[in-house]
TrEMBL record, chain A:
InterPro entries per record: HypE, PurM-like_C_dom, PurM-like_C_sf, PurM-like_N, PurM-like_N_sf
Provenance organism: Blastococcus mobilis
Record-linked SUPFAM superfamilies: PurM C-terminal domain-like (SSF56042), PurM N-terminal domain-like (SSF55326)
Gene3D superfamilies (UniProt xref): PurM-like C-terminal domain (3.90.650.10), PurM-like, N-terminal domain (3.30.1330.10)
BP terms from Gene Ontology: protein maturation
Domain PurM-like N-terminal residues, every copy: 69-181
Every PurM-like C-terminal domain range: 193-340
Source taxon at top rank: Bacteria
Stretches that traverse the bilayer: none
Family label: Belongs to the HypE family.
Name under which the protein is recorded: Hydrogenase maturation protein, carbamoyl dehydratase HypE
Pfam family, one: AIRS_C
TrEMBL record, chain B:
InterPro entries named in the record: Hyd_form_HypD (IPR002780), HypD_1 (IPR042243), HypD_2_sf (IPR042244)
Record carries keyword Iron: yes
Keyword Phosphoprotein: no
Transmembrane segments: none
GO molecular function terms attached to this record: 4 iron, 4 sulfur cluster binding; carbon monoxide binding; iron ion binding
Organism: Blastococcus mobilis
Any single biological process term in GO: protein maturation
Alphabetical UniProt keywords: Iron, Metal-binding
Membership in a protein family: Belongs to the HypD family.
Protein name per the record: Hydrogenase maturation protein HypD
Domain of life (superkingdom): Bacteria
Pfam families: HypD (PF01924)
Length: 367, 379
């Protein structure tokens, strides 16, 4: 078997195939499924396809088409109203560092903050499964009240529904929030330029790993606490120090890898991240290594990714690090012109790889 | 995880890459050295750390058949789904098996339709579910090479010891040596050497690979899963060529013993028997390449407990995974690559898992050179 046969390579065919794939990748993902699966809720390609095919199709309008964390609506005063909503179904209801209650406040407050808004009012709607202990509900409401007070928002309206046993998992919470974006403030992907710097406000993956471990079906123990926190204050600190800030996003479901992909696609740029610069706590990195999950795709609930002009990066970092929620802030990469619409990771090992959108939920590898 | 850092040191990587570049200079008769990494875990390391961009053009890595999820044929996935959809059954599976398509969808889709499919991290977790829900039939979808088979064996021994009767195993365990032989026997083979699988070898040892060098004249170096392990194994393969040797060597000495793990091997012997033949996606039927439960454990064998459709579903005709797996063609040379077969709608095994050769090429192919250029410019 020493003779190896090398088939002739058809000339130009490789380029042709690659061109075709590239064209395909540029299209928004298409919905081909007949039923909704968990993948449609994971924030990756499947989610995008479902939103496109069902919701954008039905509700199409200019504000929605931005597909931002919240909608921006012009007011006669020249300010803009930011309006965001989110549902919370996390299990278990309590995890180290927070609960579904505090999360329901932080998540929506943060969606508003990412639009540049100062959050003011929230609504809260509860879907409760028959049999759910009132004491537990009261405890969750107390968590929400404490989180709202800390974030400077008021819960001003709400709704309560009770469903049959089995029709919900204990309790689901939906919050909506409004806030004002001061006149002249605009954070958007189209302001991002090659040469800009990518910052993250703290360590990656703490929330996702804390919840995964709290579920208890892994028999893994590690000292990991969710980072759930309201970010509006930290955003104001950033914008004061770096008034040229281009774009902000909170890397919740899908993690930093997913929001960077959204940025690369919307802005038509390359996002080049440095693995050695990514702040990941040791227990989080260790748990991810063991489970075969990439911390870049793990959820955060108290962090933002920001793109700032290079000349403001130093000031931004200093200001963030002086704030208790930004102590681990770091420059994690830069914006480049090429290759367009791609997130590239320069690995600590000296190689590089592409960080793609996830197809569905990150499923642990078996080997 | 502090202990892994020394295996990810960029300075040591640069030294290894320099050595590889020297040793591989000129390639092999003008063509790049083509080395197959047999194990999917290696493929994952190679992509995760960007190793392909570090290598000179004179060394090419071919991704082999060692992704245990990718090699399960459609018919077996269909059987799994049929089991999962039976009333009263809790079907447990490793996470990455759940997206693999059968002829009519995947386990994830069956779950969406209402089947009780649960992801577990270990077969012991499945056994726990069985103990906790005695009125349900709990089936574990056992997949994987000799790496995961011992944990299935331990679970079965415990099930018997505790008399847990509502638990069974749908065994799809496969063995590494027969497909390696099948690849070496193929007339269009285009490989110069192998990176041997590290985890499998902790169980079976390094001796079973002796035939690769002796009978087929190809060197093999068993290696670990950290990026420096991979580079060092490539150095060892190239050194063999430089010194005119052709041997089976062990780079992963911190874990792999020549004789393997006798306790695990004895357990496999007790719990499993070799199937006369088993179908591999992309490679076809391979004799004595898979494990069924032994007679002693017939009572825990899902294939005997339940009626399974057991219908053989042929690999799609246009699919050329077999050739890709053997390194005979590049992914983009396949007729359906990137058209009918994409990561969202995979046809063949190589597109199924993100570490399959085609999925990796689909995602990264175009950008290899750009990425390499960028990395070089920024360092």
């Amino acid at each position: 078997m020493s003779a190896t046969v090398h088939p002739p390579v058809p000339e130009g065919r490789q380029e042709l195939v690659l061109e075709r794939i590239e064209a395909f990748r540029r299209r928004r993902p298409r919905l081909t499924d007949e039923v909704v699966t968990l993948a449609h809720g994971a924030g990756g390609k499947a989610s995008a396809a479902l939103i496109d095919a069902v919701f954008l199709e039905a509700f199409r309008n200019e504000a929605l088409e931005q597909l931002g964390d919240g909608a921006l609506l012009p007011l006669p005063s020249g300010d803009q109203l930011a309006f965001a909503t989110d549902s919370y179904v996390v299990r278990p209801h309590r995890f180290p560092g927070g609960s579904i209650g505090s999360l329901a406040v932080h998540g929506t407050v943060n969606d508003l903050a990412m639009c540049g808004a100062r959050p003011s009012w929230l609504s809260a709607a509860f879907v409760i499964e028959e049999g759910f202990p009132v004491a537990e509900l009261a405890a969750l409401a107390a968590d929400m009240a404490a989180a709202a007070a800390a974030a400077g928002v008021t819960v001003v309206t709400g709704d309560t529904k009770v469903v049959d046993t089995g029709a919900a998992d204990g309790v689901f919470i939906t919050t909506a929030g409004v806030g004002l974006v001061p006149a002249g403030r605009r954070l958007a992907a189209d302001r991002v330029r090659p040469g800009d710097v990518v910052l993250v406000s703290g360590t990656l993956g703490d929330h996702g790993v804390a919840v995964l471990l709290a579920r208890g079906d892994l028999d893994l123990e590690a000292d990991v606490t969710s980072d759930t926190a309201p970010l509006a204050g930290l955003v104001e600190v950033l914008l004061a120090a770096a008034p040229g800030t281009r774009w902000l996003r909170d890397p919740t479901r899908g993690g930093v890898g997913t929001v960077c992909n959204e940025l690369a696609a919307q802005a038509g740029v390359a996002v080049v991240l440095q693995e050695s610069a990514l702040p990941v706590r040791r227990p989080v990195g260790g748990a991810c290594d063991l489970l075969g999950i990439d911390p870049l795709y793990v959820a955060n609930e108290g962090k933002f990714v920001a793109v700032v002009p290079a000349e403001e990066a130093g000031a931004a970092l200093t200001a963030l690090r002086a704030h208790p929620l930004g102590a681990d802030a770091a420059v994690i990469g830069r914006i480049a012109g090429e290759p367009e619409r791609i997130v590239l990771l320069e690995t600590s090992f000296g190689g590089s790889r592409i960080v793609d959108m996830l197809v569905g939920d990150p499923l642990p590898r078996i080997c | 995880m502090r202990f892994v850092d020394e295996y990810r040191d960029p300075a040591a990587a640069r030294v290894a890459v320099r050595r590889i570049t020297e040793l591989a200079d000129g390639g092999r008769g003008g063509l790049p050295y083509a080395f197959m990494e047999v194990c999917g875990g290696h493929t994952h390391t190679i992509y995760r750390h960007g190793i392909e961009q570090l290598l000179p053009e004179t060394v090419e890595l071919v991704h082999g058949p060692g992704c245990p999820v990718c090699v399960i044929p459609m018919g077996r996935v269909d059987d799994a789904i049929a089991l999962a959809e039976r009333p009263g059954v809790v079907f447990t599976s490793f996470g990455d098996m759940m997206r693999v398509p059968g002829s009519a969808g995947s386990l994830l889709e069956a779950k969406a339709r209402g089947a009780d499919v649960r992801m577990v991290y270990s077969p012991l977790d499945a056994l726990k579910i069985a103990e906790a829900t005695p009125d349900m039939q709990v089936v574990f979808f056992a997949v994987g090479f000799e790496t995961t088979a011992p944990s299935t064996a331990v679970t079965l021994l415990r099930a018997r010891e505790r008399g847990i009767r509502n638990f069974s195993v749908f065994s799809n365990h496969v063995t590494i040596v027969p497909p390696l032989k099948a690849i070496l026997e193929s007339p269009d083979l285009r490989l110069d050497g192998f990176l041997g699988p590290g985890h499998v070898s902790t169980v079976i040892g390094n001796r079973p690979y002796d035939f690769v060098a002796r009978r087929y004249g190809k060197p093999l170096v068993t290696t670990g899963f950290e990026p420096l392990d991979i580079l060092q194994a490539i150095v060892m393969l190239l050194e063999q060529f430089a010194e005119g040797r052709c041997e089976v060597e062990n780079q992963y000495t911190r874990v792999v013993r020549d004789e393997g793990n006798p306790i695990a091997l004895a357990m496999l012997q007790q719990v499993f028997r070799l199937r006369p033949h088993f179908e591999w996606r992309g490679l076809g039927f391979i004799a004595q390449s898979a494990l069924a439960l032994s007679e002693d454990f017939a009572d825990w064998d899902a294939e005997r407990r339940f009626d399974l459709p057991g219908v053989r579903v042929a690999d799609p005709k246009a699919c050329q995974c077999g050739e890709v797996l053997k390194g005979a063609i590049k992914p983009w040379e396949c007729k359906v690559f990137g058209t009918a077969c994409t990561p969202e709608t995979p046809i063949g095994t190589c597109m199924v898992s993100s570490e399959g050769a085609c999925a990796a090429y689909y995602t990264f192919g175009r950008l290899h050179r750009t990425a390499a250029g960028l990395a070089a410019a920024s360092s």
